[in-house]
Specification:
Blueprint: H1 2-18, H2 26-32, H3 37-49, H4 53-65, H5 70-92, H6 97-104, H7 108-118, H8 123-141, H9 147-162
Helix pairs in contact: 3-4, 3-5, 5-7, 5-8, 6-7, 8-9
Amino acid sequence: DLHLSKATQELQKLRLYAGKDAKITKEIVQQLIPKTLEHNVFELTNDVLQGKVADAWRLYDDLLLQGEETIKINAILIGQVRLLLQASILMKVGYQQANIAETLKIHPYRVKLAMQQARKFNEKQLAALYHELIENDYLVKSGQIDKEFLFQLFVLKYGKRQG
């Protein structure tokens, strides 16, 4: 399995770094183990929703330097915001974590994180963000606006709304 192989490689890297007697700390793990694209986009979503423009731009630039595509980042961001919106709506009608996971057919842990994040924002705010991301996706894919410029403009506009 690819995930097990990757995990084994990362564990070997930690062992080599720490040596025989050193203790592997959380800080060492955070420093040495690369975050997944999905984890970075989760953080990017938080930064955008909280109006942290500089943090969002820095993370976006890091993703570009790692070879990620703006269109792919935007697509995952759309999916994350859609999940927050769905969780928000389902929580409002009384669904619990297990019901939401079953309804959306996703892992309960993702639902737990989405529920925690969705509670911080109102439904209108999430819906507006979702629609703007969809519109931006259309503008980029139809060649109307440069993808990186539009993404940076989006982060800046959304940050101003929060501030």
